[in-house]
Amino acid sequence: MNLLQDFFDDDYNLIMSEPIISDMTAEDFHESLSLLVQTEFNSVMEDYIFIEVSVGLVLGITLNNVERKLVKILPGSSDYKELESIIEIQQYLYDNGFPCPKV
Prior knowledge:
Blueprint: H1 2-9, H2 11-21, H3 26-41, E1 45-53, E2 57-63, E3 68-73, H4 80-95
Antiparallel strand pairs: 1-2, 2-3
C-alpha cells in the first residue's frame, strides 16, 4: 500500500485525480478497490504494481492467485455510450492483433 500512499501524498496526483477520488483517503480508496477486485475477479488484491493518472486512474495490481490485472477508473461523469464505443474499438484492435489489453 506504500505506492498508493505515495500517490495520495503527491499534490499533483490529487489535483489530476480529484474527479475520480474526490475526498477519499488512501485507506478508503484501497478498501473500495479491494471490494471491487473481490467482486469482479473473485480474488484478493495483493499489491500495487503502478498507478498513473490522466483522463482516468490506471492501476496495475497483483492478485493473491498471482494474476496481474490492469484496472482503469474513469470519472463518474463519463458517458456510457462513449465507454461502450471505446470498448468496442479496443476489442476490435485486440481481435486483429494490435498489442493492447484484452477487454
